[in-house]
Amino acid sequence: MKVIIMGCGRVGSQVSMLMSEAGHEVVVIDHDANASRRLAPNFKGRMVKGLGFDKNVLIEAGIHQADAFVAASASDNANIVAARIARNIFHVPRVVTRLYDPMRADIYERLGLTTISSTAWGAKRICQVLSHTDLDILNTFGRGDVSIVELEVPPQLIGRSVAQLTVPGEVIVISITRDDKAFIPVPGTEFHEGDLFHLSVLTTAMDRLEELLGLERR
Question: DSSP class of residue 92?
Fold first, then answer.
């Protein structure tokens, strides 16, 4: 996949390195010629100096052949403009926009732009950590709407079935690790002592999960 990434700051440089290491063809656009210093020496992609919303710069970066475009500069306005040009003028199939202002993220998602708001995600993540101290939240998806939770089976669950910890559409046990071997459980699978299991949980159902586990709110 050919990916163009606008912005070689902390986020843009990390995305560039990860995509390059995964074997993708990466082109990075940044107005600062020294921004390439943020990339590791083994970066196999290409740098283009300029503004990511300049059509000529985009053409130089190969926008006509791009499979994906990431707007990851430090400016919300620049990211929005560049993303809309990539999507609406050059018809890039996948466009992702990083925005700091979550209010803008909501607006532009309604217009069809895929946005990532680190501000909104960070705020929700902090609230989760403060509110659910007994739950080990490994990852979240969307804007923190769904969480992956890791737990060692508590005594009250031993011998009970996965179905008893399942709330359709809210709480689902997605894997159990037993004797260092992970497997996907079925509703009738029983929990054993020492099991490590992972759940997919709606953020709005965290309280419900704590009730099912017999945990006290703090």
Answer: -
Contacts of 147 by beta carbon, 8 Å cutoff, 6+ apart: 128, 137, 138, 139, 140, 141, 200, 201, 202, 203, 206
3-state secondary structure of 126: helix
Please give the Cα distance from 110 to 104 (Å, whole number).
10
What is the arithmetic mean of pLDDT over 111-126? Answer: 60
The model's pLDDT over 40-86, given as tens digits with 9 standing for 90+, comes to 888 888 999 999 899 999 999 999 999 999 998 888 888 889 998 99
Identify the structural domains of the chain with CATH numbers, from first to last: 2-118 (3.40.50.720), 132-213 (3.30.70.1450)
Alpha-carbon span 182 to 137, nearest angstrom:
18
From residue 217, alpha-carbon distances to 6, 94, 204 in Å are: 43, 41, 14
- Reported as a single tens digit per residue, the pLDDT across 123-144 is 555 454 444 455 667 777 776 7
In this structure, which amino acid lies at residue 16? S
Closest residue by Cα to residue 186 from 210, 209, 166: 166
Residue 111's nearest CA partner among 83, 130, 153, 134 is: 83
